[in-house]
Design goal:
Layout lengths: L1 H34 L3 H19 L5 H22 L1 E13 L3 E12 L2 E13 L4 E12 L5 H13 L2 H25 L1
Antiparallel strand pairs: 1-2, 2-3, 3-4
């Protein structure tokens, strides 16, 4: 009985150590991101945030307005998920490099389309010139459980080569829809 109590405590200690490790990594990421900003940019952001907070405290947006806006956004998101079949389960973003002209961010995204799950990792490079901002996706890595379908593997390889996420999402949506229909048809005959 004493061993069980010790095991429970050891498990709790291990869980807390893992949580501390994750929080430390998160803190270091935030510190790294903030290192890319100049003091001037930080001060401007703080002033902007203070102005927003003062505006909210003066009653520009009431809690009921914010709640209505949130409900509207949730309804829009629900509609888009039903329309496209995509449900994103996680997203993380880490700034790798930031200068005045160029920003590089690493993104990780996972989700489902119908019953097919996927994970994406890519870098988004934004270059700002005098007139416009251009964005380029690099280092695209797509992880999908393609099962026995080698066509999906070939498609994923081509998309990774060209770095075209729009093509990936459009094609995955169509493929997942037909995949579900085939699956239901085969279940019907079993």
């Amino acid at each position: 009985m004493d061993n069980n109590i010790y095991q429970v405590y050891e498990d709790e200690i291990q869980a807390l150590e893992e949580e501390i490790k994750l929080l430390t990594e998160k803190y270091e990421d935030i510190q790294q991101e903030s290192a890319f900003f100049s003091e001037e940019e930080i001060l401007k952001s703080m002033e902007s945030l203070q102005r927003e907070m003062q505006g909210e405290s003066k009653g520009h947006k009431s809690p009921s307005d914010l709640k209505a806006q949130l409900e509207s956004l949730e309804a829009d998101l629900s509609f888009l998920m039903k329309l496209t079949g995509f449900q994103f389960t996680s997203h993380s973003k880490k700034t790798v490099e930031k200068t005045r002209e160029r920003t590089v961010q690493k993104h990780r995204l996972s989700g489902n389309c119908q019953s097919l799950s996927f994970q994406l990792e890519f870098q988004l490079e934004e270059v700002q010139s005098k007139e416009k901002v251009s964005s380029v996706i690099t280092d695209l890595n797509i992880i999908m459980e393609s099962g026995e379908d080698c066509g999906v593997s070939k498609f994923v390889s081509r998309v990774e080569e060209h770095g075209n996420l729009i093509t990936f999402f459009r094609s995955l949506s169509t493929y997942a829809e037909w995949y579900e229909q085939r699956r239901h048809t085969f279940l019907h005959f079993k």
